[in-house]
Amino acid sequence: MSDIVESAGDLVKSVGKFSLAMSLLAARQITGLVRPKEASSVDDVTRAAGGHMSGVVRTAFAVGTNMQSGLVDAAFNAVGMGAKGLTPAGDTSKLVIPLPTMASRRVAGVKTVASGAVDHGVPQTELVQKLTQYQVEQQGRPIDAAKAVIGLWKSEGLATSIGKHLLPENSWADSRFPREVLPIAHVGFGSGSTEEMVFDVAKLNALFTATCAPNYLGFAYEGIGAILRIYERGFFKVMSGALGLIRLDAPDGPDPKNLFADYLKQFPPDQQRLIVHGYGRLVAFSNLNIYKAIQEATSFPTERWEGTVHGAAFAFAMMNSADMPNVLENSAIPFDRPIRAAFQNGLIYSQVFFDWYLPGLLEDWQPKGPLEAELIDHARREAAAARKRGYPLAMRLENPRS
What we know:
mainly alpha, 2 domains, 18 helices
């Protein structure tokens, strides 16, 4: 019965997306564009329809499929057929962002990443200049996280393009790069390379070893996890295709069973954790709220909880950088202590990451609440350690909360 209901839910989602796609096509007065050979199922029609959209209509389609799927998920949650995982044990209102706000922030994030991306190779000198430019554009006092995120996302988009269109001269070990841009550049490069090489582990290992700056190598592996999530079958893959983040006909990724256990075992444990972290970022991006994202994260094998929740918190901070004081002050989420610690560590790390990109962000911060002040003090200590070390640790704290 559970399988039947789940299948019915998928069908309802597909029909909902199909209806939305057809409505938007009508709005653009597009007719006769979906040929029979393009469509063997309702979802095929939806994908084909999405391929004929552009601009605001294409964005509306992507957001609409996201929201319609979310509403169907909510209905099945109400009858006990929703996502499995740990259920919050208390108030879940404090970190819930209104649905229209979350939808607009998601789209803004994808569009900002896309604004930095190109569909061709970039000569090394131009690459250095552009990444430096994106970072310099966000400087100035007072520094805030929202400014940092704009530069980070544009840089990620450009670095993703380098992974897809690598030139022989491209190298992240180039001393002309400001060190501030290297963590996010390696994340994007890891994602783009994974897509280009279709998850081939041997090729990725060789490429990262030859191309990455040694102290930032881990960030490239983190980027693999984001593509694992994006290429996983589901509405988020359709949305990513509709927004142009990936090809509409993108192939399936590796077998997702037990959180890609067969794929992950090809990597050592530290890299597995980084890949899971990247996957967690996209878990947050593809769920309607952070509690739902954490519930999904805790449906995975137990040893993956910390990395996935940490990654989800990191992404939640990036999406909601304008609300960070409130997010930090209300970060004692009603989950078991290890999950709460992983979430708070991810939030702390996000501020260290932002401060590395725009030095002075944490210095300028004026906390108002006691928990916010405690977490910002922790972030300041970690940021100071990163400066002394000469580089930030890849998606982890030197001294995490427990």
